[in-house]
Design goal:
By secondary structure, this protein is an all-beta fold. It is about 0% helix and about 45% strand. It has a five-stranded antiparallel beta sheet with strand order 3-9-8-7-6, with no helix packed on it. A five-stranded antiparallel beta sheet has the order 4-5-32-31-30, with no helix packed on it. Strand 12 and strand 13 form a beta hairpin.
Amino acid sequence: MFRGVSMRASSCLVLVSLFSAGFALSGCSSGRLPELSQNKWSSAPRWPLAPEPARVIRVGEISSSEDIVASRSLVRLVAGDTTLRLDRPMDVAIDSRQRVLVADAGLRRIVIFDTASGETKTIGSFGRRRLMSPVGVAATEAGWCASDSALAAVACFDGDDEELFVIAQGLARPTGITYQPATKTLWVVDTLGHRLVAFDGKGRQIRSVGSKGAAPGSFNYPLDCAVGQDGSLWVVDGLNFRVQRFSPEGKVISNFGGPGDSSGSFARPKGIATGPGGTIMVTDALFDNVQLFDGTGRLLLVFGQRGSGQAGLLLPAGITVDEKARVFVADSGNHRIQIFRLLSEQGGLQ
């Protein structure tokens, strides 16, 4: 159970409360996304190296509630040390309000960073069950959903973070999740079930795709999924060391990858996201990097490297891309969300 702190802009009074499912902390001033200003991009870690035009730059990170509050010193002065620090972030999503949602297995909570208000809050339960290992989170039209692999459950919430429903039956070990707007379908990766499971907007199962195996359309411990701009479903097929592409209805289309220790292959693929121009990004927890592919599986770029510095990643897991071509990576071993920005071929904004 966490101690909660609320600071109101009108009076800057400190209110301390105990919450059974989480806490909220906000500053007297507005929030911010900790992103490097464009006039400082030339000094940021970038890929590829000069003299090639930069295609990806590292622009910031979120490791604690302080990172999104504009006046950090005021928060410390009035409230004391009320900082929430990420522990083992496993997935990240951006909702319709541009809040950064983090599934943190170490904290056993969903952490919600509101970069507009500077408030941080957490969700610590699905129904009456305390979270044990939250590993997946995805934005939806109604709000957002999250998975807990240890509870074998998925819960969905509205835009005000009120629980809508819990899926607590039929899943062996839910991990990655994604929402398909065109069909209004929530797709859940059931890792131990070696399948994908589709649910409607009320949490009712409507489809199951795949079984254990190596043939196209089969899985060997799948881990994450993402929806492309054309509605295609992309899945990290963990121990088959590949990415598979499916139609919006769940029919297998193609795959790429394979085991190896070189760029373009996979050693421990974890998270997947789709980006501008039909690009596909895959994190690898053994390579400690992100590989960027086109829609055919052709490798375009590798960014990130093993380490704890600005350019470093350690056991990267979930990944997402927002509407401004910013890439958010759950850098679980470094206890933070790394923020990168995709640039055009000429090195400018996407």
